[in-house]
Amino acid sequence: xxxxxxxxxxxxxxxxxxxxxxxxxxxxxxxxxxxxxxxxxxxxxxxxxxxxxxxxxxxxxxxxxxxxxxxxxxxxx
Amino acid sequence: xxxxxxxxxxxxxxxxxxxxxxxxxxxxxxxxxxxxxxxxxxxxxxxxxxxxxxxxxxxxxxxxxxxxxxxxxxxxxxxxxxxxxxxxxxxxxxxxxxxxxxxxxxxxxxxxxxxxxxxxxxxxxxxxxxxxxxxxxxxxxxxxxxxxxxxxxxxxxxxxxxxxxxxxxxxxxxxxxxxxxxxxxxxxxxxxxxxxxxxxxxxxxxxxxxxxxxxxxxxxxxxxxxxxxxxxxxxxxxxxxxxxxxxxxxxxxxxxxxxxxxxxxxxxxxxxxxxxxxxxxxxxxxxxxxxxxxxxxxxxxxxxxxxxxxxxxxxxxxxxxxxxxxxxxxxxxxxxxxxxxxxxxxxxxxxxxxxxxxxxxxxxxxxxxxxxxxxxxxxxxxxxxxxxxxxxxxxxxxxxxxxxxxxxxxxxxxxxxxxxxxxxxxxxxxxxxxxxxxxxxxxxxxxxxxxxxxxxxxxxxxxxxxxxxxxxxxxxxxxxxxxxxxxxxxxxxxxxxxxxxx
Lengths: 77, 502
What we know:
heterodimer; A: mainly alpha; 3 helices; about 0% strand; B: disordered C terminus
């Protein structure tokens, strides 16, 4: 049986994926407070909701990076 | 009609509508279990999306998340971060898992371990642990169904009889519908769910406070500490938050049913696109949180937080609307429960029973074992649901603590060429044992850290150290690819023909 070449994600894509982790997880101490309220929501909840949308943007960028790399790899084969 | 008759009839009508849709979707096909476990790669993109979405929104997000928002407050925010970040993790993991699966014809999580590490006992262990930790997830759905029926009957039907009715309904549902049907019912379920979430998330704060903003202002004044961590708890602070978000986002695709669903995708690219768009689905959850937080002020002092959402709905809306919300909730419990039961039963029959105890079994016999397992698993979950009073969120966290122990074996198996079977096997046993010990001795959180995360770190460390010690003798390829064919031990369990579940 042929070995399976598993393609590692590119470093740029990994960095883009790290951004939501920093924003929504590791930095919790910086944004876990009620004031200032944003549009009537406590700050921590507003921050997380905002980052749901921003995460999609980050991953869309990562997708573009990976897709461009795939095209390039196919071109050189 | 009395209010309870109105709401119960509405719930029953919605469930009946769901079952009818399922029946119409499945009527021209044989209920083929293989269709779900393998035939998968033939699943169109649409059906796959439906299944994946159907698995994400369960009673956990509906009653569990609002229940914790009510009883715990701030720490509940972990759920928003977890779901969003789980898709980020999936971007870097699922396309690769899919690729390996396509090359080697894999159907289940056990198959992956069997192929990568060439040891049927490791594969069987993965199967046992997977099925064991699916049980709390299943138990959670039954508890949720029990709550829905009992609140909708205006407490006329007790929790226990309500759960017995639910399990009978569920088993009938699984036997009559099959998996393809379940996928189509999840269309109705998700549409109702989004409608329910948005209407109660906006409606309930509006009715009692004139809007979401005034509601939060009132809550921040009345309970200044409720909205931040640790909220109404003593020990669920920032360390707990970070370790729990990591544990659950890494573990999201380690469930046997979510991992298995990966193989049903049309291409790796589909999975990557999915990972980009799916975080937006998490937005619905914010509305559920609004309802849960409103309940803190409107219906204070409930004995069980998981009752909060439906109790506040009952207090704010007429009985017919309670029935609609209850019906949405009932489908939200039944669709995932059906997927969980089918996955666990098939996994048990095909990846544990046949390879270890009865290699000569025919496919018909495997199907019979699977069918018997549907009944056994339902009864076990029912028993646990009746005798256990843990919150819905705690039940799911227990499951996560278990299944995330697969993560090192999966991620290192994909990306680290030196990882070995003894390393992964020992690490996983140590991880599962640590989880069992810490949770059974009530040491979760462990010095502020989520117990599952502590076990995961230990698991990683043992896997890596033992792999380095044992890999000198292993067969390695120089380009970082997976080991060559000599390590692949194909077994009967995944070479077999279709298994029929009528």
